[in-house]
Write a sequence for this structure.
């Protein structure tokens, strides 16, 4: 079934989806957010918000300090997750899952909007504030929460704390795919290269 194709002469090395994670701030939650922020995240987001000119007299945001912003019940700190498709070029969009932190009292993410945030390679299934891995993507946008959730049950209330941003992630570091010949052949490698490039530019 691979006769006459690139697969007859070469195999893909590596590849596969990449799991990315990060922490972000959701705004626009009315009174459904939470002022609870774990200490290590509060320090990280203080710097994050300062870079966005909060608490700056120069930009007329002096009264709105990072601390006051994070303590507002209309905001919530959340965990983000997503998967970058194999071979995704810069600008590729992907869905982002948004989850309220378990140690907070956030009631619902419905109507919330995620502020722009960086996403990193997931290390051992855990996200670390600001890294330490390379920034692979960024995420932002309005959160979609299942509108058919039964809020009268514990399971329904739990689901209100989770949402999705369709196409909310954007790849900022392209993910190359390597093709390795079964047997070294310079002429064949150049022909395969030309064929792949011709398909990319169709």
């Amino acid at each position: 079934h691979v006769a006459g194709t690139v697969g007859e002469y070469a195999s893909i090395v590596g590849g596969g989806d990449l799991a990315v994670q990060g922490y972000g701030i959701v705004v626009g939650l009315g009174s459904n957010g939470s002022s609870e922020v774990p200490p290590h995240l509060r320090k990280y987001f203080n710097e994050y918000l300062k870079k966005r000119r909060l608490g700056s007299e120069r930009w007329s945001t002096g009264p709105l300090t990072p601390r006051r912003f994070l303590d507002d019940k209309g905001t919530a700190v959340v965990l983000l997750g997503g998967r970058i498709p194999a071979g995704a070029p810069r600008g590729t969009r992907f869905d982002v899952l948004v989850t309220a932190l378990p140690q907070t009292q956030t009631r619902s993410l419905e109507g919330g909007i995620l502020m722009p945030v960086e996403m990193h390679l997931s290390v051992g299934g855990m996200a670390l504030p600001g890294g330490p891995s390379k920034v692979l993507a960024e995420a932002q946008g309005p959160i979609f929460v299942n509108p058919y959730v039964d809020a009268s049950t514990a399971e329904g209330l739990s689901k209100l704390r989770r949402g999705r941003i369709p196409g909310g992630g954007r790849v900022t570091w392209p993910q190359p795919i390597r093709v390795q010949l079964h047997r070294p052949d310079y002429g064949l490698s150049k022909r395969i290269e030309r064929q792949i490039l011709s398909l990319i530019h169709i």
Summary: Residues 107 and 158 are 8 Å apart (CA to CA).
